[in-house]
Write a structure and sequence with these properties.
Blueprint: H1 3-15, E1 18-19, E2 25-26, H2 29-38, H3 42-48, E3 61-62, H4 64-74, H5 80-95, E4 102-107, H6 110-123, E5 129-134, H7 143-147, H8 149-152, E6 166-171, H9 197-204, H10 213-224, E7 231-235, H11 236-252, H12 259-265, E8 269-274, H13 279-287, E9 291-294, H14 296-311, H15 322-327, E10 331-334, H16 350-355, E11 357-358, E12 376-377
Parallel strand pairs: 4-5, 5-6, 7-8, 9-10
Antiparallel strand pairs: 1-2, 2-3, 11-12
Helix pairs in contact: 1-2, 5-6, 10-11, 11-13
Length: about 400
Amino acid sequence: MNGSKLCIVILLFVSIPVQASHRALLFNDKATEILVDLIPDFVVAVNNESRGIENPGERSLIITGMRSTINSLLREQPTPTQFADGFKILVDEYYSKSGMTAFGSRLDSADQITSFQYLLREEDKLPVRFAWSGETATEPMTPAAAAGMYTTIGVQWQGIESNPWLWQRGLSSEGGWDAPNRGCLGDDLPAKPGVDPVKVKQVLEICPDFESPIVQSVMRGMQAGWRIVGMHGVGSHGFRIFIQKLEEAMERNPGVMSLDYVRKSRHGFAHGTLTGAVPDVVEGLVKYNIYVPINLRRALAIEPDNIRQNYGEPGWKFLGPIKTLLDAGVKVVGEGEIFQPDPETYFDLMDVYVNREIAKGDNVRKTAPEVFGDGDVYTPEEGVDRVV
């Protein structure tokens, strides 16, 4: 065992960390002292990746990314070959059986990127065509390093034409904008009567924090010419803010960010569970050719309770209005997820988009919809035919 791993093992033994949630660990002072000695940038790195928590680094509250770093120091790291073997198993057991021949996802660690590039060099192909988006600014690092990361390395996004097996499709920031069940809706969808608007608009809803180095890194990258893709885009006002920031970037860098360049970039998001079809937002989405992925399985699984509790009847118009958006000229993408594949049915997510029916049950996260058969139907007028 090398010195760093021994130090971490001692740290864990001395501290007995408390599991605060699925996202965090809480260490005592002695453990933190050892940890800061091992990782000098610990405090600023934790604060950099945190949201809605006051100075967690000083308080020894270890957030997701730093937990991953500590886990990496504790365990023997897989070689690129071992990582590639695991990827092949994932393709054999999930992707192929679900009918997937191409896959897009975020990569947020150097080990992931290294392994995929290694496999491509060794075999001249991957088990599945893979479009990856960079999210490495969320790695534990100083705020200055995170904020300037994507402008420092240069604009590198590509299309499938550059390499049909592995291509860099743009920048991501999973939690940097808003989130499912916590969409940024602003004044588009007020809290319903009898519900405290402060709790809904200032506590529940998440809107982008432009003081965050991670958000700054993505905005600076966009201004330099990076494509933004895979970033959470859930609520209507969140899309409006993105359009405003895109227009600011075009004004600041007109030599690169022409209207033609922006439209060809096909900026895109993730999840789109409560997008609505607000006229000024729709106008911007169409003008700049912004793609709106909508994960309808997730939308129908989690947002109805949110609508009933916090927004009331007007909220239903915001629930994945796919047909309305398509009819308005917006590019809508059906977003899929990896679930236990049905051995007899490819593309079983299609049923949700056509029938907008879902039932909750024990099979959550294994099949899509969560339970086949009779369930609740939500806004059936937004159902699409498979020919659309």
